[in-house]
Write a structure and sequence with these properties.
This protein is an alpha+beta fold and about 130 residues long. It contains 4 helices and 4 strands, in the order αααββββα. Strands 1-2-3-4 form a 4-stranded antiparallel β-sheet, covered by helices on one side. Strand 2 and strand 3 form a beta hairpin. Helix 1 crosses helix 2.
Amino acid sequence: MNKPSIYGLTLDQMTAWLGERGHKKFRATQVWEWLYRKRVTAFSDMTDVHPECVELLADHYTILTLEEHTKQESLDGTVKFLFKLVDGNLIETVLMRHKIRLVGLCDNSSGLQHWLQLLCQRAAEEESGFIGS
């Protein structure tokens, strides 16, 4: 059985899922902190989470992260990343910065390159910017 990534859950969904299995609300916040602040790559690294909760999570979810394959940075601060997925596929993303703020994060994969290129160009032109995927 392929287990889904824990990163597919929102905090509310994780809270509800753990609550349905008898865990208190604060457990979801603990797990969330480990995933998004401490950036663990294994459930067993969550040292202050109850072992029963850790085992439950490991039985039902995986912690899949991206592997940085290539990083290119231009003089204007634009950064292009090529990430490798667990299945071996690659995802290209571009992080564009503006003098005022972050302008956009554009994903140039899955046949959406032209559409996203237009969005990124538009975001670079607008003062308010564009944040998206």
